[in-house]
Amino acid sequence: MANTLSNEKEVPAFGWAARDSSGILSPFHFSRRANGDLDITIKILYCGICHGDVHFAKNELGRHINYPMVPGHEIVGEVIKIGSNVKKFKIGDIAGVGPICGSCGKCSHCSKSWENSCPKTILTYNGHDYDGSITYGGYSNKIVVNENYAIIMPKGLPLEGAAPLLCAGLTVYSPMIHHGLCQSGQHLGIVGLGGLGHVAVKFAKAFNMKVTVISTSPGKKEEALERLGADSFLLINDQQQLKEAKDTMDGIIDTASGPHSLHPLIDMLKTCGKLILVGASITPPVLPYMPLMLGRKIIAGSAAGGMKESQDMINFAAKHNITADIEVIPMDYVNTAFERLAKNDVKYRFVIDVANTLNVSHID
Ligand code: NAP
């Protein structure tokens, strides 16, 4: 069904935007597209800070960035307006929005609910909306989204801890399901104990898998094992530990946010093991042919997930009481949070308390 706008007007909004590749954010007024028949308008309560927000704000991945750019794709908020044909939500419901807010709805990808792979997928920020306008993310007071690209937040899940699941949770859950790396007793390696990595540990333990955290940070060992429940922890540059881990893992989810060698990871996989790359780096990986060919090993990439997977993921999280470990911050701390995230100094996700700390008085 086409989304019609009837007599609706553009929605005035405000938030914090990066103005250039310094990545420094500052207050910003803008408009959202009008709330159409199939749209909901959400008053944003919380928004997580993904490392991808830093990559985009600083243009670290060599993409075209539409400055001023309002980041944020781990959005939870209250539905304050619904279009006349909205079926899934009513006013007052709590909705979540992740990294995508639209797609063509007709192609072979969309028909399988792989909207994230649709050639016309619309990113929640730095994308082009249906009407051609630039999309702005969740470091802002409101968002307008087609109801099919918002998920129903289960009751009982603390919203601030659930917000990061909309991207971090989805990005690790989706390949675990898609590649069958979710079977009880399988051995899963997780590279990088950050925002994505720590929720990957939680999902994998809920699937009753054996989990090894593969990290650059010796200081994270105790927490990984004792609090997050990983079964083992190995340092990515410890040759002895790498040797002992050879041929032991059914799969690895690589969430590292910086360049690193894939060779030792490929060696850790059993025959037919799968290495799934979800961390983003501008440096292309160098692949060793022989261990891949002789071990029939598979390397795949994965980006976020589709809308059905998003709802499945959040329902699974609610059932297993999975939320992110977070540090809740006020809006005006966001630039410090970016600096700390770039220095690997957060356990494990910053979440902006948007509703209580984004003040229009911040705006010039
Ligand atoms: P994060 O919280 O900063 O965590 C990344 C972790 O990677 C760090 O905590 C660190 O863990 C490890 N790391 C950092 N630099 C490394 C290096 N050079 N070599 C090896 N490990 C390194 O970031 P995040 O939010 O989880 O995001 C992780 C990556 O995924 C980012 O690149 C982000 O853009 C990307 N991402 C992709 C998708 C997607 O759809 N594919 C979605 C969201 C995010 P240790 O201290 O344990 O080593």
Automatic annotation (TrEMBL):
<dbReference type="Pfam" id="PF08240">
    <property type="entry name" value="ADH_N"/>
</dbReference>
<dbReference type="GO" id="GO:0008270">
    <property type="term" value="F:zinc ion binding"/>
</dbReference>
<feature type="domain" description="Enoyl reductase (ER)">
    <location>
        <begin position="23"/>
        <end position="352"/>
    </location>
</feature>
<keyword id="KW-0479">Metal-binding</keyword>
<dbReference type="GO" id="GO:0016616">
    <property type="term" value="F:oxidoreductase activity, acting on the CH-OH group of donors, NAD or NADP as acceptor"/>
</dbReference>
<dbReference type="InterPro" id="IPR011032">
    <property type="entry name" value="GroES-like_sf"/>
</dbReference>
<dbReference type="InterPro" id="IPR013154">
    <property type="entry name" value="ADH-like_N"/>
</dbReference>
<dbReference type="GO" id="GO:0009809">
    <property type="term" value="P:lignin biosynthetic process"/>
</dbReference>
<comment type="similarity">
    <text>Belongs to the zinc-containing alcohol dehydrogenase family.</text>
</comment>
<dbReference type="InterPro" id="IPR047109">
    <property type="entry name" value="CAD-like"/>
</dbReference>
<dbReference type="Pfam" id="PF00107">
    <property type="entry name" value="ADH_zinc_N"/>
</dbReference>
<keyword id="KW-0862">Zinc</keyword>
<dbReference type="InterPro" id="IPR002328">
    <property type="entry name" value="ADH_Zn_CS"/>
</dbReference>
<dbReference type="InterPro" id="IPR013149">
    <property type="entry name" value="ADH-like_C"/>
</dbReference>
<dbReference type="InterPro" id="IPR036291">
    <property type="entry name" value="NAD(P)-bd_dom_sf"/>
</dbReference>
<dbReference type="InterPro" id="IPR020843">
    <property type="entry name" value="ER"/>
</dbReference>
<protein>
    <submittedName>
        <fullName>Putative mannitol dehydrogenase-like protein</fullName>
    </submittedName>
</protein>
<keyword id="KW-0560">Oxidoreductase</keyword>
